Structures are given as C-alpha cells and as structure tokens.
C-alpha cells in the first residue's frame, strides 16, 4: 500500500459524490422543463438523470487480493450518467403552450422529494470522505513527527 493510496481512495469518493450533487441539482433545476430534448420534430420534457457508481474492482475478493499482492487500492468509479426511463407525468393544463389537443401536458419525471434525498445522501457521503481524508492526513503528519 502506497503512502497516498488512502487519500486517492477518498479523492475518488469526493469526485463521485460531487458529480451526484451536480446531477441532483440539475434535476431540481429542470423540474418544470417541458422542453428538454427535441426528438423527431417534437419536444420531450426533461428526463431525470442518475449517476451510476461502481467499485474500482469487480468483487471484494479481487479487491482484497489486489491490495495484498501489489498494494494498490482503487476507489469508487463513475460508470456513467444515465437517463431515468420512468414515464413522464401528465397533467391537464389546457392553457399551457405545450399542451396537446386534449389539453394534457407532459412534465419531467423528476420527483423533488427523491432528488432531495439523493442530494442529502451525496452530501453525507462527501462529508464522510472528507473525514477519512483528514484522518489519513493526520496519520501522515503524526508519522512525520515520529521521525524528528
């Protein structure tokens, strides 16, 4: 295990959680966007985005063997940002400019409550990674003091 491996693992977690917060904020900003994407000559509402995270290794066994054998540890990996495929909400608003002939408007599939839960979860995970980073930094500083 290298000197900065713990910090690198925490840094990967910080990066991943910041992306989750950015995506949740983007979803909240577009909660009422009825014109998110222009497809086949028709506007579609904004579609909720989600961050897919994964481990740097495929299994705990692989991660453990790799850490024991060569000392390298991998952190969290962002596998991508995907669109949520749940159907759009439909409401009756005949005065809306994007209403169809029957007066129904399609709204984004963004649930503000779900986004707030995701945002709070990402914030707590971010704080945990900061705590781990500070603990590693403190251990390195104490190790340097021993050498004096």
TrEMBL record:
Flagellar basal body rod protein N-terminal domain location, by residue?
A: 7-36
Record's subcellular location: Bacterial flagellum basal body
* UniProt cross-references to PANTHER family, sorted A to Z: FLAGELLAR BASAL-BODY ROD PROTEIN FLGC (PTHR30435:SF2), FLAGELLAR PROTEIN (PTHR30435)
Source species taxonomy: Bacteria, Bacillati, Bacillota, Bacilli, Bacillales
Its quaternary structure?
Answer: The basal body constitutes a major portion of the flagellar organelle and consists of four rings (L,P,S, and M) mounted on a central rod. The rod consists of about 26 subunits of FlgG in the distal portion, and FlgB, FlgC and FlgF are thought to build up the proximal portion of the rod with about 6 subunits each.
Q: Which family does it belong to?
A: Belongs to the flagella basal body rod proteins family.
Spell out the InterPro entries in the cross-references: Flag_bb_rod_N, Flagellar_basal_body_rod_CS, Flg_bb/hook_C_dom, FlgC
Annotated protein name in UniProt: Flagellar basal-body rod protein FlgC
Keyword terms, alphabetized? Bacterial flagellum, Cell projection, Cilium, Flagellum
The record places domain Flagellar basal-body/hook protein C-terminal at 102-145
């Amino acid at each position: 295990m290298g000197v900065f491996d713990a910090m690198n693992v925490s840094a990967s977690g910080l990066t991943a959680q910041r992306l989750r917060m950015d995506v949740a904020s983007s979803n909240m900003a577009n909660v009422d966007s009825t014109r998110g994407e222009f497809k086949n000559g028709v506007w579609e509402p904004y579609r909720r985005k989600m961050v897919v995270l994964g481990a740097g290794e495929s299994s705990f066994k692989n991660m453990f063997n790799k850490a024991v054998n060569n000392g390298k540890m991998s952190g969290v990996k962002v596998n991508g940002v995907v669109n949520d495929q749940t159907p759009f909400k439909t409401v009756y608003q005949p005065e809306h400019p994007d209403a169809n002939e029957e007066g129904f408007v399609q709204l984004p599939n963004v649930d503000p409550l779900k986004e707030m839960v995701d945002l709070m979860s990402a914030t707590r995970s971010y704080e945990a990674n900061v705590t781990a980073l500070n603990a590693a930094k403190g251990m390195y500083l104490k190790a340097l003091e021993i050498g004096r």
